[in-house]
Amino acid sequence: MCSVGVESGELGVGETKKGREVPQKPRSNRKPLPLAVWRHQGAGPKNAGKKSFSWNGPVARVTVMDPELIKEILVNNNVFKKPTPNPLANYLVCGLPSYEDEKWAKHRKIVAPAFYIEKLKYMFPAMYLSCSEMVSKWEKLVSEKGLCELNVQPYLESLTSDVISRTAFGSSYQEGRKIFQLQKEQAELTRQVLQSVYVPGCRYLPTKRNKRLKEINDELRSILSGIIRKREMSLNLGESEDSDLLFLLLKSNRQEIQEHGNKTDNGMSIAEVIEECKTFYFAGQESTSDLLVWTMVLLSMHPNWQVLAREEVSQVFGNNKPDYDGLNRLKIVTMILYEVLRLYSPGLLLTRTIFKETKLGELTLPAGVHLLVPVLLVHHDHEIWGEDVKEFKPERFAEGVAKATMNRLSFFPFTSIAISALLVIAVTWTIRLVNWVWLTPKKLEKCMREQGYSGNPYRLLLGDAREYATTMKESKSRSIKLTNDTASHVQPYIHHLIQKYGKNSFMWFGTNPRLNIGDPGLMKEILSKPDVFQKIHPEPLSDIIVGGLLTSEDEKWTNHRKIINPAFHLEKLKELARFFPTKANKRMNQICIELQVLLGGIVNKRVKDKEMGKKYDDSLGILMESNSAEIQEHGIGMSIEEVMEECKLFYLAGSETTSNLLVWTMILLSMHPNWQTSAREEVFQVFGTEEPNFDGLNRLKIVTMILNEVLRLYPPVTLLLRAIYKKTKLGNMNLPAGMQFNLPIILLHHNCDIWGEDAQEFKPERFSEGVSNATRKSKFSFLPFGGGPRICIGQNFAMIEAKMAVAMILQRFSFELSPSYKHAPFAILTLQPQYGAPLILNKL
């Protein structure tokens, strides 16, 4: 890396400690968000540009900020792969997002049908029911004067959890709620694991945390296994219940197997179905709840956008019940959600690694380097989004995401959950240990420096882990002022590196170097080549929370994506550290067991129902139907275990992303009452006082603009990670295998060079002419849902759910920030308010 101009880090620990030791006090609300969140990561661009790297133990991490490089990493997933994960992380999630190569292709193919738009329409009533229940609770809590202070975050988390439970498992949604509880505990245990560098073999230690992780994993598998077997029975009986994701997944899996001569190897096993179920739940719930929270926070901060969104909701639905078609008309709400996702991306990092010398842009990276994409930093990069990148301006997305990003891969809030990774020592503990912890990192460092990248000197084993932990702890201790410069607060270490070394920088994640990619062109190249720039191999512990499509690669990802897709097609929407005996790990294992039982029961029931001819129109039903069709057509589909993993992903990703989008949207509309008014007027104009409908949602232009701006300012995933496992060309760079890439989405979304000097401001009007026009300066600069072939499969689901919730909220309430609100965006798995989102609700 010396050959690319990257400086290195301290022997042994890298900068991990700095990223972990983050103080607990809130920050000033006026501090730029990217600087506040990523203070240590991002202090570097002023000195040496965006080429930087850091150290995670002995692993060099190159931060990637260039949208073109990000695109290259994400698109070439056969080269830029996910880094090898901490084995304990596999307990959390091990579905599609964790797979590579053939398995990823297979799973993607099977899972994709469950997410076809035409399938999502059938899930619409379930979404409406959940939103209606939440709004009714709020109405009861409002005082006689029509005012009350309410922390909306737990309500929005419950909302998205309920939506995922109903849409993923249909009539089995009660078991889904149990899965959510288990995964929530499991996620916290996994977070603890991922804050430290994984040492090979430590997962076998009988710690309390490891024991609990395994207990949760076993419990989850047991629950999911029961659900899946029931669904399989329904499929066998020929029952048509294709309105939930699990049924769609199983159906798609069966079709894949049947299409390939009834060869079960071409489909998913029960274990794989279980992992996909875990992924559905974890990814879906976490991302959506964070989106909702940030949306409400931002709409509270920007009452003008709250008004605009409410007006749009009223215009589209009036007093009628929101419908699927109406949601697609909520342009302002969509803009707001996009801007919330930009400013407060659910996911902060996207990590990839390379296993052979690889060319990335103008870089030639050696094998073993990790590539880190700081999503939040990319979303906050003024070079991409303009000087107003820190501002909440949903108008960026007035003309859609493509125009807002100028067709650059610079807006990807719905990206895969970033799973930290380290190289695993396999054979001997002598020569290979030395090679792993010292010789290889130094070789990669020299390669990066020779190509103009700078970063801390490599430090034995830990890399930048210590510094990373320290800056994260310090950042978490403070709130910031009511400004949208979130990147430095959410991703402090990457931001620090960029400030110190410039945009051509790298960091170390253990022994893996990660290039910081900030150029939308490079981001586009990375994300557009998923076969080359692959997701970093997840830590096994992450499989406990969610697996499935999120972690799959290559053929398995393609297979699962194909099967899952139908459940998320718009037309469907319209119809619709495990071995350590620590207390935490033991609980994670217990939760995993519970989830397996719950999801297994749901899936099994669907299988039996299908055999009896019963059909389901929920996501699970569509997924299982798609899987069955894939099996019938090709003889290759998902196993029950894989369907369960996709279910876990539905739950986690679907709920987390949307809830955070909604929260940030409400916060921003509270801060900008003019937009709140405009959105409300639009909602009443479209729906009046009637329930929102699907077609009406599509007419909510202002709401869409607001959502886009929320996604820009607060993207769910603030950092994407990619990796290459063979020598790869990226831009003008020749990169060796093993290189990883940071794609800082939040910096991209807050880049003043891209979004203008007002990039930090909330301006939904950016998206008044669509995303394409808003990103005209850099087409690949708006990536709230990721980008390339591996773009979030559930993005339509999340946006429809968000529009529905925003429309119904605006129909019934006006809201403003409570004086007790502390602005402290903080990324756990997705970007969310650290201290909740207390708002003052006013019943209309």
TrEMBL record:
Record Gene3D superfamilies: Cytochrome P450
Keywords: Heme, Iron, Membrane, Metal-binding, Monooxygenase, Oxidoreductase, Transmembrane, Transmembrane helix
Binding site for heme: C792
Pfam families: p450 (PF00067)
Segments of skewed composition (Basic and acidic residues): 15-24
Region (Disordered): 1-33
Top-rank taxon, per record: Eukaryota
Cofactors that this protein relies on: heme
MF (Gene Ontology): heme binding; iron ion binding; monooxygenase activity; oxidoreductase activity, acting on paired donors, with incorporation or reduction of molecular oxygen
Family: Belongs to the cytochrome P450 family.
PANTHER family registered for this protein in UniProt: CYTOCHROME P450 CYP72A219-LIKE (PTHR24282:SF250), CYTOCHROME P450 FAMILY MEMBER (PTHR24282)
Identification of the protein by name: Cytochrome P450
Organism, scientific name: Escallonia herrerae
